[in-house]
Amino acid sequence: MIDPLSRGIGRTSAFGPGAATAPPAVANPKTVPGRRVAFFGHDLAEPTVRKRVDAIREAGWSVVVYAFERARPGGAATPREADDTVPLGRTVDRNYASRLPRLALGILRALRRGPDLRAADVIYVRNLDMALVAWTSSRLAGSRARLVYEVLDIQRLMVRPDAPGWIARTVERWLLRRSALLVVSAPDFIDRYFRPVQGFTGAWHLLENKVMGHRLGEVADRLDRTRAAEPPWVIGWFGTLRCRRSLTLLAAIADALGDSVRIVLAGRLSEEDIAPHMLAETLDGRANMAFRGPYANPRDLPEIYSGIHFSWAVDYLDDGLNSDWLLPNRLYEGGLCGALTLARASTATGRYAVAEGLGWAFPEPLADSVTAFLRTLTPAVYAQRHARLLACDLATFVDVGGMRDLLVRVD
């Protein structure tokens, strides 16, 4: 496996063993005179979109955000910064056929800000459909800005063996040849997909799903990384909850271990994958399982991770493909907040967790493996592994300069 830090920041600062707070965030740099980014995002309210936009601003570049919106439960409004956000319309999740006409309308809406597109030095895009919108609108506007193409997940469409999959891969290869830089969040995306499937040989940059360094000030004084090394063992599954199989596995673990385990869920439920009634039925009658609902990231991380022994970093949504290759946010957020990782063996997440001393990786059948592990786990073994986690360097969990390094490569 490629060393995830070999292409990014060095290991410079650390949490001392038993430390309860993080070091202060890096000081804000001055704005880079005249350097501008046009950022195209698939969903303005998506936390990772906001995370990238904030990081670009923190690197000193000005940003105009061109973004679609997705329908929100209860019709909740999407936050927007009126002066530098261009709404492109509303799209639907995973329905590519109905999305195409809306993408075309998005191009027309982006062109209303043609002068901003022409003034941009870099066009930064998330995902294939946004790359098409960005490339078309920027070139029609007369922009010659360099294109940065970021991929945080290899969508299942991209690996389908049928005609739609072939078309999507062909379009992506065309865009890759026109991109100045490919950005990925895990090395396996290069080794397992872009090189062998797409024949990609261009420049790429690793930007892991770490907690952004400039946001540490919001949580540093509230982080409590200490843990009582004793049952009941508490497992937290946090973030966007998509993996139906994980929900089933956690319920099986809860049933097998009873009062010796507690399972806490928090975040946004992906209703396309886990229906609300399924979650309700799973929780019903299980006193050792609870759902806390949505939370703000990173503001609420200290509260939701408080007392959590283990972070559930298991995903089966695209088993054998993207689920095996990714390095999720919860891997880094859990470590920062003092929770050890539970992962699947033979996945990038599992290999990373074991190699970095962040937790354990288990073979299939997973529910049986995790249950047997927790039944025999002693406080001494947990305390020893937890002490190793607390001794990890800050750079293991926190990005203190990745976006600046990235933009330097295309400046």
UniProtKB/TrEMBL annotation:
Do you know which SUPFAM superfamilies this protein is assigned to? Answer: UDP-Glycosyltransferase/glycogen phosphorylase
Query: Domain of life here?
Result: Bacteria
Its EC number(s): 2.-.-.-
Q: Where is the composition biased (Low complexity)?
A: 16-28
User: Does the UniProt entry include the keyword Transferase?
Assistant: yes
Classification via Gene3D superfamilies: Glycogen Phosphorylase B
| Keyword annotations | Transferase
UniProt KW Transferase keyword: yes
Q: Where is this region: Disordered?
A: 1-28
MF (Gene Ontology)? transferase activity
> Broadest EC class?
transferase
**What protein is this chain from?**
Succinoglycan biosynthesis protein ExoL
Species whose genome carries this gene? Methylobacterium fujisawaense
